[in-house]
Structures are given as C-alpha cells and as structure tokens.
Amino acid sequence: MKARVHVMLKDGVLDPQGEAVKHALGTLGFSGVAGVRQGKVIDLDLTATDAAAAEAEVRVMCEKLLANTVIEKFTVEIL
Amino acid sequence: MKARVHVMLKDGVLDPQGEAVKHALGTLGFSGVAGVRQGKVIDLDLTATDAAAAEAEVRVMCEKLLANTVIEKFTVEIL
Questions:
Q1: Quick one: pLDDT band at residue B2, thresholds 50, 70, 90?
Q2: CA dist B14 to A5, A17, A42, B26, B36, Å?
Q3: Which residue of A16, A55, B9, B34 is surrounded by the most CB atoms within 10 Å?
Q4: Pairwise CA distance, residues A46 & A58, whole Å
Q5: Given this model, what pLDDT does residue A14 score?
Q6: CB of B38 within 8 Å of any CB in chain A?
C-alpha cells in the first residue's frame, strides 16, 4: 500500500524557499506568479494492508518525525 | 488560479533523503515501511485565468527552473 504525505509550512510562517522561487520566476519573465509556497512530499511504500490502520500509522510518523508540527502542517493520502 | 507541482527524483536515481527517512522510521519502531522517496511540492498562486494556458506555462517553469529534468520528473496539477 502506498501513502503520500505533504508537509507544508503553516500559513503564517515565512517561507524563504518559496519567496526565492517566486523571485527567480519573476527574473525569468514569468510575471503572472502572485505567490509560491514550497514544501516536501514523502511517498511511503507500506507493507500494511488495511487502509485505515495505515493512515493512522502514517499520521503518527508525521507527528514524530516527518513534520515539525510547531511550524508545519501535513496531509496524508492513502493511494 | 492555483497550481501544484510535484518534483520527484526519477525512479532509477538514488534518493539519500528518502533512505535516511526510511532508516529513521525503522529506528523509531515503524517496521512496515518498505520504501521512501522524498520530493518537493511547490504551490503556485497564478494570476492566469485560463487553465490550459496556466498548465502550459507552469510546465515551462518546471523545465526552466523548478525541476532538474536530467534526474527529476515533475507533475503539474491545476487546482
């Protein structure tokens, strides 16, 4: 079973990576970019077969390791 | 209009970040993780109003800046 986790900075948190990408896109002539936020995507290949249990386990992984929940939010999708 | 870009290393390319995450999850007691691949997610806020044109422009952004197409693959979603 595969799971996809997105980890993004929370909305109020400054995202210097995103700002750098936005600036670089402007420099390259892409003027229609109003904002950029950059985050991480983590694809997990799980041996679990029960989707609900797998999602619960991945949420614990996020809380413990994959996301810094002080400044980051995460979403879990079971594929 | 919002677009979401995923940039992942191509399948044959070694992913040391993913391996590190997999190892760390194992150390924390998550034994059911067979593989981990880590990539980037980039959320773009675009002023364009035409979805097809926006997707085409974001693909050019990926080719020029957001992805290194020698070792990375990307997907574009218009949200």
A1: very high
A2: 20, 24, 15, 19, 11
A3: B9
A4: 9
A5: 96
A6: yes
Test B57 with A32 for CB contact under 8 angstroms. Answer: yes
- Unique residue bearing structure tokens 């290949």: A45
Q: State the Cα–Cα distance between residues A30 and A52, nearest whole angstrom.
A: 42
Please name the member of B36, B60, B65 whose beta carbon is closest to the beta carbon of A44. B36
- What whole-number distance in Å separates Cα of residue B35 and Cα of residue A57? 15
For A2-51, write each residue's pLDDT tens digit: 999 999 999 999 999 999 999 999 999 999 999 999 999 999 999 999 99
What CATH number corresponds to the domain at position A48? 3.30.1280.10
Q: Which residues of B touch A39 (CB under 8 A)?
A: 40-43
Dist. CA A61–CA B30, nearest whole Å: 8
Contact status of A25 with chain B (Cβ, < 8 Å): yes
Q: In chain B, how many domains are there? A: 1
Predicted confidence at residue B56, as pLDDT, reads 96
Query: Are A74 and A60 spatial neighbours (Cβ–Cβ below 8 Å)?
Result: no
One-letter identity of residue A8: M
